[in-house]
């Protein structure tokens, strides 16, 4: 149980050898869920995107493919995640279309009202206070900008609730809790969608 707990706890802030293993697993293991989430961005046509909690960098790379003229800024709290995301997106970084930075979502050091789209894939479980962090996201979005949240857990599935007890600092959130926090943080339109067969949850909000 000790090694297993150490490994799954790397989802919060990947570090060291176990962190490298976790990041590799994130890029592959969460791909289908993340792509399902991105399918909800039919109305968005962003030029400037910020991917929060970017992990190994795969989703930032997919956003760069989806929006061929967009620039993506990828942010993560983990120094190891930043390193891996830079390696994953090195060609786009060299082309001037991507930037990867270390940062804290509870105090984003980004230009206000500079982004058309913010994304958060499988990460808000570890954000220190949803309203505070969502307010930071709202601050950096342009008026009318979108915020996409995509989780493997809808806050009620037994497997995720089990991990919540194992991983320090993890908190699953229901669609209702996320929607309430988003509106309190300044988002006007919020829509949640559950996957038909899995406990996956996508929430799309507009500033």
Distance between the termini: 43 Å
Overall pLDDT = 87
Which architecture per CATH?
3-Layer(aba) Sandwich
Q: What would CATH call the class? A: Alpha Beta
Please estimate the helix content: 40-55%
What is the ordering of alpha helices and beta strands? HHHEHEHHEEHEHHEE
Biggest sheet record: 7 strands, mixed
Regions with little confidence, pLDDT below 50 for 5+ residues: 1-12, 14-22
Write out the CATH superfamily name: Vaccinia Virus protein VP39
Broad shape? globular
The largest sheet has its strands arranged as 3-2-1-4-5-7-6
Structural class per helix/strand content? Answer: alpha/beta
| Continuous helix count | 9
What's this model, at a glance?
The protein has 207 residues and is an alpha/beta fold. The chain has helices at residues 2-8, 16-29, 31-38, 58-66, 79-88, 90-94, 130-140, 158-166, 175-184, and strands spanning 48-52, 71-76, 98-102, 115-121, 141-151, 189-194, 201-206.
Task: Give an account of the 3D structure.
This protein has helices spanning 2-8, 16-29, 31-38, 58-66, 79-88, 90-94, 130-140, 158-166, 175-184, and strands spanning 48-52, 71-76, 98-102, 115-121, 141-151, 189-194, 201-206. The model is unreliable at 1-12 and 14-22 (pLDDT under 50). 44% of the residues are buried. The chain has a single domain, classed as Vaccinia Virus protein VP39 (Rossmann fold, 3-Layer(aba) Sandwich). The protein has 9 helices and 7 strands, in the order H-H-H-E-H-E-H-H-E-E-H-E-H-H-E-E. It is globular and about 45 Å long. By secondary structure, the protein is of the alpha/beta class. The protein has a 7-stranded mixed β-sheet, with helices on both faces. 40% of the residues lie in helices and 22% in strands. Helix 3 (31-38) packs parallel to helix 4.
């Amino acid at each position: 149980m000790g090694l297993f707990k150490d490994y799954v706890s790397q989802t919060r802030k990947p570090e060291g050898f176990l962190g490298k293993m976790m990041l590799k697993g994130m890029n592959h293991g969460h791909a289908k869920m993340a792509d399902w989430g991105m399918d909800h961005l039919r109305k968005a046509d962003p030029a400037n995107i910020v991917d929060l909690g970017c992990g190994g960098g795969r989703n930032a790379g997919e956003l760069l493919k989806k929006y061929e003229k967009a620039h993506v800024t990828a942010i993560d709290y983990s120094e190891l995640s930043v390193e891996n995301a830079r390696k994953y997106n090195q060609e786009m970084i060299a082309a001037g279309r991507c930037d990867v930075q270390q940062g804290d979502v509870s105090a984003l050091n980004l230009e206000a009202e500079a982004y058309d789209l913010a994304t958060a894939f499988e990460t808000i479980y570890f954000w220190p206070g949803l309203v505070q962090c969502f307010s930071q996201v709202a601050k950096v979005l342009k008026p009318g900008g979108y915020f996409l949240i995509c989780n493997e857990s809808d806050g009620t599935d037994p497997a995720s609730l089990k991990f919540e007890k194992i991983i320090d600092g993890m908190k699953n959130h229901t669609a209702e809790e996320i929607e309430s926090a988003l509106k309190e943080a300044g988002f006007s339109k919020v829509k949640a969608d559950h996957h038909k067969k899995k406990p996956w949850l996508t929430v799309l909000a507009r500033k």
